[in-house]
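Thread amino acids onto this structure.
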């Protein structure tokens, strides 16, 4: 199985900027947060997602190493299916 590098994760996320995503963040001790949002911006070491809630807008940021270690899993929300991003 091929290993994913941080540069590949960054490139995959840059290609999805402005698209709707499903975010699954593992917070430890069996706590998993699942939210939907829009990939707002990518920076050299982190990326930001604007979360879509009922009445509020929140922004969260994660590092590319969070995706590499699977602390955060991101799926692209298409109409037909969900596709994992940066997974090999």
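Threaded sequence (88 positions):
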């Amino acid at each position: 199985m091929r290993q994913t590098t941080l540069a590949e994760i960054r490139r995959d996320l840059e290609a999805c900027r402005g698209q709707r995503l499903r975010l699954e963040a593992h917070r430890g001790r069996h706590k998993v947060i699942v939210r939907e949002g829009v990939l707002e911006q990518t920076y050299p070491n982190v990326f930001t997602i604007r979360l879509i809630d009922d009445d509020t807008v929140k922004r969260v940021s994660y590092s590319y190493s969070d995706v590499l270690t699977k602390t955060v899993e991101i799926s692209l929300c298409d109409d037909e299916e969900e596709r994992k991003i940066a997974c090999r």
